[in-house]
Structure formats: C-alpha cells, structure tokens
Amino acid sequence: MTGQKIYSKERPDDNARHVASLLTLDEQISLLAGADFWRTVGLPRRGIPSIKTSDGPNGARGAFFKDGTPAALFPAGVSLAASWDSDLVRKLGEHLAAETKARGADVLLGPTMCMHRSPLGGRNFESFSEDPFLTGKLSASYIKGVQSKGVAATAKHFVGNEQETWRMTVDASIAERPLREIYLKPFEIAIREGKPWAVMSSYNAINGIHADQHEHTLRTILRNQWKFDG
C-alpha cells in the first residue's frame, strides 16, 4: 500500500468539520450536553446520531449502576500491569469492545491511566501502576484492542486525578517538570501510540484551574503538541 491514499474520499475529520460548519449555534451547544447520563444529543436532520457510552475499564456495565444485565468482569488494571504483557492487554481490549457492543454502546470509558501516587488512592485498583512508562504502554495496547473492533476508547482522567478524596474540588499543585514526566507522560505515550478517539478530563483543578478549562493541558499540550484530533 506504499504510496496509496488510505482514504477513498475526504478524511473523516474534514467531513466532521464540514458538518459542524452547518450547525446552528443552538445545535452546536446541544452537542456539549447529554441527552441523558450516558448518551449524547442526536441531530438526525444533520446526520449526527446519538452516541451511547458505557463505564469501564475492566468491564462494560451499560446504562445501569445496578440491576442491569450481567456483564463479564475482567481483571482490574493493577492486576493486568503485574503481567507486563501488552499483547494480553490488547486481547482484553478486543473482548471489552464486544462487551461494549452487547450493551448497545459506542464508547467505552476506559482505560483509567491515573498514577498510583499513594497506596491510599481510592481507584488505584483500576489504574495500572505508579510507573508512567508502563502505564502508557499498556494503555496504548488497551486502546488499540478496543478500537480495532470499532468501539471508541476513552483515556481518562486527564489529568492530575490521583486521589478520590475531594476529587471534584481538590486543587492538584504540580510543577511543570513532574507534570510532564509523571502525570502527563502515560497520556502522551497512549495518545501518540494508541491514538484514542476520546479523552475524558478530570474534575479536579490543576494549579488553580479546573482540568476541563485548562488551556495549558488541553490546548497547548494535548491538541497542539501531541496533535490529538479526537
């Protein structure tokens, strides 16, 4: 396939930009909110479907927090990391994609890529490790496995979400060097190698600015430096 174009027509992102340019302001705003807890707003007249998400990362729960349909439970991230086996993690991603489809969902909310900064971290079990390199490499494999079956993977939580206590309001004070070398590094590896279709921001603030409004991490680093286009 050397020298051949891999797209028969326009690139998908070009088409998305064209469709976005046709939307009214109200339609654009509607896409920023959910139709419900798990689904985005659909715009049928624009050819934009509602997208359903499902919680992960070591299973696909579907739309119910309890009393839902039975789902497969896979080993948690910390157990997978102990295997040091990226091929195994990719295969697990493929099975997770099948589970996600069985829930009628399009997007799996995983992998969780937060660092094990403290052994008291409330969600350490679902993250991989305290090592940025290992976490990044295994996350890339996880993402490749999920997306190879046509389901979007979601790298989370971007960034500085290393504790559950006050996770919605805590301000993570992180200097630039540790931010880059520890907390952002696994995301950088996963995004450059795994190319996830989605990234979920964290709730916490980073150096006084909430993660979902953080110009430095979202625009300067994620979009401009890493070229994330999801």
Structure, explained:
By secondary structure, the chain is α/β, with parallel strands linked by helices. The chain contains eight helices and seven strands. The protein has helices spanning 12-22, 25-30, 77-83, 86-102, 132-147, 176-183, 185-194, 215-225; strands spanning 53-55, 107-109, 152-158, 171-172, 198-201, 205-206, 209-210. The strands form two sheets. Strands 1-2-3-5 form a four-stranded parallel sheet, covered by helices on one side. Strands 4-6-7 form a three-stranded mixed sheet, with no helix packed on it. Helix 4 (86-102) packs across helix 5 (132-147) and helix 5 packs parallel to helix 7. The chain is globular and about 50 Å long. Residues 1-11 have low confidence and may be disordered.
Order of helices and strands: HHEHHEHEEHHEEEH
Oligomer: single chain
Instruction: Record the strand order, biggest sheet.
Output: 1-2-3-5
Instruction: Give the total of beta strands.
Output: 7
Query: Beta-sheet strand percentage?
Result: 5-15%
